[in-house]
Write a structure and sequence with these properties.
With 298 residues, the chain is of the alpha+beta class. It contains 5 helices and 24 strands.
Length: 298
């Protein structure tokens, strides 16, 4: 074989080696481009269907320890209620802002934190705090910062003030408050009276100073439903938190429950007595009906 032929074969061999290394590099650097979709590993469908609190899907869905099945959804159980928060796992609470502790029953002292929220004086309150300014300063509209009183001192504004282009001085109020008729003090805006709040149908709006909070209505509890934090139906029959008679069955309804007397008994469900075989007079039936109404719990 001639020398020129050997050189050509060697160059072709090196070219093939470079091509192989280039393809291998693509597999590591750009895997989504290099690997066809048909060759990608398929995700386990059981993993995709598995939700929080689910320990098994086959032959039937079963919830993990510390969770219970509520209408096909595993809900966490907290033996002690989360007073200012909601249950997110087995005996695990997630506290609302301003509270801490295992059951969210401890107030957070924001004034004692390393990063104090107020620029001057701070007063801790239950679940929140209030800021105050030193003499010669007034509270800014953010409710935290203190600004030096300049020409606004003559207005004696409760929180803050501004000077417009014409030199006119006006008092300002923080969000959630409005200027009173005296043009100096601020009054609370009741967001619950108008369409200003964002509470759902299962929640009630509770006004607070400068803001509002949403609380679950009677018959509902705060919890997780379909991976979202919301007010879900409180199953009084499941928890035993009902007033049905021992001779009655509890039937859960949306936001409440009803009581139905067992077979062979009569009454309103809260009070049940054994049905008599002999015919009662209309007067006796009416008397028992009025008596059950008087004894029905409020």
């Amino acid at each position: 074989m001639s020398t020129e032929r050997k050189k050509i074969n060697m160059m072709q061999f090196k070219s093939r080696i470079y091509q192989h290394f280039f393809i291998i590099g693509l597999l590591f650097v750009v895997p989504d481009i290099a690997i066809p979709n048909r060759l990608k590993a398929k995700t386990d469908p059981l993993t995709e269907q598995r939700k929080a609190g689910v320990c098994a899907l086959e032959p039937s869905m079963s919830c993990c320890y510390g969770w219970k099945n509520v209408n096909g959804v595993c809900q966490p159980i907290c033996k002690k209620p989360c007073e200012n928060g909601f249950c997110i796992g087995a005996d695990q609470c997630s506290c609302m802002k301003g509270y801490k502790g295992k059951n969210c029953n401890e107030d957070v002292n924001e004034c004692g934190l390393p990063m104090r929220p107020c620029s001057h004086s701070c007063m801790n309150t239950i679940g929140s705090y209030r800021c105050f300014c030193n003499p010669g300063y007034t509270l800014d509209t953010d409710g935290k910062s203190c600004i030096k009183k300049l020409h606004c001192t003559s207005l004696y504004c409760q929180f803050g003030c501004q000077i417009d282009r014409d030199g006119e001085m006006d008092c300002l109020c923080p969000p959630g408050l409005y200027l009173a008729p005296d043009s100096r003090t601020c009054k609370d805006t009741n967001e619950c009276d108008g369409p200003f709040h964002t509470c759902t149908e299962r929640q009630s709006c509770r006004n607070t100073f400068g803001s509002f909070i949403c609380v679950c209505k009677e018959g509902y509890v705060l919890g997780t439903l379909q991976d979202a934090v919301t007010c879900r139906d409180k199953d009084e029959c499941l928890t035993g938190n009902h007033r049905c008679s021992h001779q009655a069955s509890c039937v859960n309804t949306e936001g409440s429950y009803t009581c139905q007397c067992d077979k062979g008994y009569t009454g309103d469900g809260f009070r049940c007595w054994k049905r008599s075989n002999r015919q009662q007079s209309w007067a006796a039936v009416y008397f028992q009906y009025k008596r059950s109404k008087q004894m029905r719990p409020i």
